[in-house]
């Protein structure tokens, strides 16, 4: 992480949830729903007699095979200025699929160049883990970025998003 802070404890950290306390979507993000809609989940677990755990997430749902990626819901994150590292937090689990992350930079972040600084596709299918860091990347704090998250077209391609953590590199 690029920073001029004297210690890591001095780095400014901000966390933005995808869902607010009243279960409304955080207006800091841009949500797109061409055909399939985002759903709200308030808990995880609770299977086979286990207690459920409060953990709010925005879930994409699953899609029929051969669905066009243009029909998938997506969310766009306008990365704050001076961000040098960011993490997307969510859920990993056996009923989840793949996350497609597209990071762009340029004037205002729009109509710009795709950056290959983090993994572009992440398999979220494994035993349950929440909270989990599901995507991350180091950034140049002098540039502006937009990150678009969406499921990618595989069977059982649901994603579950909780929050985004930003670390400011400039002190």
Overall description:
By secondary structure, the chain is mostly beta strands. It has a single domain (8-168), classed as Jelly Rolls, CATH 2.60.120.200. The chain is globular and about 50 Å long. Helix content is 0%, strand content 46%.
Task: Outline the fold blueprint.
Blueprint: E1 13-17, E2 29-32, E3 39-45, E4 52-59, E5 74-78, E6 83-92, E7 98-105, E8 113-115, E9 121-123, E10 129-138, E11 145-151, E12 160-168
Antiparallel strand pairs: 1-12, 2-5, 3-4, 4-12, 5-11, 6-10, 6-12, 7-8, 7-9, 7-11
TL;DR?
The chain has a single domain, classed as Jelly Rolls (Sandwich). Helices cover 0% and strands 46% of the residues.
Percent helix: under 10%
- What structural category characterises the helix and strand content? mainly beta
Number of discrete domains: 1
| Sheet having the most strands | 6 strands, antiparallel
Name the features.
Jelly Rolls, 0% helix, 6-stranded antiparallel beta sheet, 171 residues, globular
């Amino acid at each position: 992480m690029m920073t001029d802070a004297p210690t890591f404890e001095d780095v400014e950290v901000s966390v933005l949830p995808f869902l607010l306390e009243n279960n409304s979507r955080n207006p800091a993000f841009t949500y797109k729903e061409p055909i399939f809609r985002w759903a709200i989940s308030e808990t995880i677990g609770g299977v086979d007699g286990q207690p459920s755990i409060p953990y709010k997430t925005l879930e994409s749902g699953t899609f029929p095979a051969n669905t066009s990626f243009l029909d998938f819901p997506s969310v766009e994150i306008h990365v704050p200025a001076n961000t040098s590292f960011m993490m997307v937090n969510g859920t990993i689990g056996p009923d989840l699929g793949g996350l497609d992350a597209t990071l762009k930079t340029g004037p205002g972040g729009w109509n710009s160049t795709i950056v290959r600084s983090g993994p572009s596709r992440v398999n979220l299918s494994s035993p349950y883990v929440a909270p989990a860091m599901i995507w991350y990347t180091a950034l140049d704090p002098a540039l502006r970025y937009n990150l678009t998250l969406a499921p990618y077209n595989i069977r059982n391609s649901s994603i579950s998003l909780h929050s985004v953590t930003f670390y400011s590199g400039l002190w």
